[in-house]
Amino acid sequence: MEKVRIQSFFENLLKSVEAEPESFLGFSQAEAPTLGDFLADLDPQMSLDWNGVSFQGLPALRGHVIAQAGLEGVCDPDDVLITAGAAEANYLALRQLLEPGDEIIVERPGWPQADVLATSNGAVMGEWWRDEASGWSLSLDALEELVTPRTRMIFLTNPNNPTGQLLDADMLGQIAAIAARVGAWVLIDEVYAGLEWDHPRMPAIAGLYERGISTGSVSKAYGLQGLRLGWMICRDAGLIRDALVLREYSSQISNHLGEAIAEIALRPQRRADMLARIRADSHANLTLLGGFIEAHPKLSWCPPQGGLIGLVRLHGKILTGDVLAARALQPEYKTFLISGSSYGLAQHIRLGVGGGRAANLQAGLERLADLLDSFD
Ligand SMILES: Cc1ncc(COP(=O)(O)O)c(C=O)c1O
Q1: Res. 150: pLDDT tops 80
Q2: What is the 3-state secondary structure (H, E, C) of 3-65?
Q3: 374 CA → ligand 1 middle, Å
Q4: In the predicted model, what is the mean pLDDT of residues 297-303?
Q5: What's the distance, CA 323 to chain centroid?
Q6: If pLDDT is split at 50, 70 and 90, which confidence band does 79 have?
């Protein structure tokens, strides 16, 4: 196993924090609630010791996780492991399932976590490219060509980070069928689920395929990323066990207070109310962003079908997303956006409406307009 090395996405994120931006056009998480929103439902006598709680996480919370994924009657709480965010769930699965020489297929563009960890595990990467001209779609023929008897995992995001495109039930079923022919796992990071715009939530892969792994968290649709509270759902008891064993040698157990708050947030009525509010705010902001992009001659995009972010192509004399993102952080603009180069696409930027009111979306768009003019 090799040392884990920094990837440009995180490198740029670290740099941008130092620049102290005032507006944020790249965030992917909904507006965060405050602790006060939960106080009335929290028990002040709750022990902050952990003993006596299941290693897999609070049973009631695991029940809510199954319900939010639409998996009632298909999966049960034993199929869930509560983790430190979707990121830890992905980490545990990637680390336990991949061995040197195994092949993993990742989507391009896609969330870079699998690349970084699979590479350090000595796995071989196959790149499944989305086609921008057809709305960032994925071709099953291309997948058939990439899959070999050594393929151990297909790793995807649904909705996709960064394009916001969805994989529907039919597509997911076909991906699972291709994977099943070689016994490969299909891990779908469903961290943006719940934020679909003109579609219902897409089916969770854990319900469609025995070797399907659904990962998710309360970070994005509920804005609770600071809780570090996520999950892995899989009907294969061996994988849940292997993940739990690896976790014992890192963070050991789940975050007890985070679990208590997430359990409240995911109670059915509360979840429905929160999502309705977040969806209304986010949809209005996405409409604003979409209008800005469509009216601007130097920008174009395929609007996201889900989630709060999309990938925007740059036209005209702007050289690259890197140049634009770096200039955006300068004192005249103090605006955060993400260069497409972090996703292997130099002529794109990732724009998003996450972060709530603190993101200063309107001011950010005005600054971006000035910044784009500065390239004339
Ligand atoms: C696709 C994807 N997966 C996982 C994460 C991390 O989520 P969490 O806060 O649940 O660990 C992110 C964060 O941006 C993401 O975009």
Answers
A1: yes
A2: CCCCCHHHHHHHHHHHCCCCEECCCCCCCCCCCHHHHCCCCCCCCCCCCCCCCCCCHHHHHHH
A3: 33
A4: 96
A5: 25
A6: very high
Q: Is 354 in the pocket of ligand 1 (CB under 6 A)?
A: no
User: pTM (2 decimals)?
Assistant: 0.97
Q: What pLDDT is attached to residue 289?
A: 97
H-run or E-run covering 232: strand 230-233
For the chain, the straight-line distance linking the first and the last C-alpha, in angstroms and rounded, comes to 48
- CB of 86 within 6 A of ligand 1: the answer is yes
Does 217 sit in the ligand 1 pocket, CB within 6 Å? yes
For 182-196, how does the pLDDT look when each residue is reduced to its tens digit (9 = 90+)? 999 999 999 999 999
| Residue 186 falls inside a structural domain | yes
Last residue of some domain: 267, 287, 321?
Answer: 267
Query: Residues for the chain: how many in total?
Result: 376
Parent domain of 369: 8-33+271-373
Question: How far apart are the C-alpha atoms of 325 and 329, rounded to whole Å?
Answer: 7
